[in-house]
Batch of 2 targets.
Target 1
Amino acid sequence: MSLTVFSTCLFSYSMANAQSKTKPVPVQKNMVQHNGNVFELWSPPADTIYIENIETGEQEKKISMIDSFPIKMNDIAIAGHKDVQELPLPERSINEYFIDFVNENKDLFNQLHDGSYILYARHFVINEAGAIMYYKFEGIQESRNNIKTNSPEISKQMEQIKLAINNQVNALITSGKIVFAPANKNGKKIMAMANGARIYIKVKDHLANVDI
């Protein structure tokens, strides 16, 4: 497997520096700091569900957890979708930015193992000027059905490629290239939550394509 494209130029900034700018840092319970701002998070209560085991016929208890998301920034309320007349909207579909990102970085995505992957960025907070103040991106995820390698060396290479992709995604989101029109409530621009992006990618014979 050739990794000639995967070079140090992909790490134009270090992992530590990238994470310090993009990864929320816990301050106290239900509070995180992100790029100098303090966000209060709301965590929905866990939901208990029962699923029938098809092999035993018995009911099994499962705990369903829902993502926590920001409700205040620096003690200022963040409006939800139901609180505004007009949601924060990018100049074009936010998925389109991510599709272009994949297509522009094919040399990097082509180095992934064959299989299915997801880029999922969510919980975008857009301020009154249309700037992204907060988002959640936990890295490129791969399908459980992908064939796993038993080679530690190849596993390490894949983790490096994923790290490079993650850094590039964070760079895209924080670059200012994704421009939003802010939310509107009663004719006033306010800070609010915006819809996120979810992109499915399939890699076959080391050729990556967005699965639309």
Note: Helices lie at 15-22, 94-104, 106-109, 152-174.
Target 2
Amino acid sequence: MNYLPEYSTPLTRETLELIKYHKRCIMDLEQSGFADPEAKQKLKFLDEFKENIHFYLDGIKAIEDSETKKQAKLLKFRKIAECEVCNAMQPVTIVREEKNEKLNVMCDIVVCDVCKTEFLNIMPNNFHDRIIFYEYLIKILSPVIEKESKKKKLSPDIKGFILIVAEGKSYIAAQLEIERKENRMKQAIEDMTKSIEGTYDRLLLAKISGLNRDDLQSFVN
């Protein structure tokens, strides 16, 4: 596993330095004839924890890479909107953000690149707020669809509503799964941060107290 210094933090850098320090002390003591029955276990622990830190940094990189791709994808979506003047989806320029107070979501004020009309893009400008938007549409459209579906022939509007509801349900399910995966990854990084902090404290205490040079009381546990 490759070390990723660009993603390192003061905590990981200092912990890696302590790992190097303790490994050097253990090997120096062995070379001086000090017999420590736990030396092999301690060296294994230090090597494995070093790999854990590298894995942790890989996780940070994965989260940052995923966020970069997500923001690029989101910006692509935000730069296309349905222009009522053109009556079509058109490329737009984002002017500013505006809050939809009713739904409590953020939207964009945009200018159509074709007809130069400024308008509010009602589609929220972030992936999570779109869940709220679709939930609202499903709530207001579903009763209409249910009532009209009893008729023998559905109007074009109702068919369009059915497609919107289906699209909304599909989007919500997919986005919630994405958010669950992101949250699991973030929780894993948070847990690993606490683990590194705990190990750092033990290694630092062992260094300060000189345990590594006296009886080498195990810091593995």
Note: The longest helix spans residues 156-209.
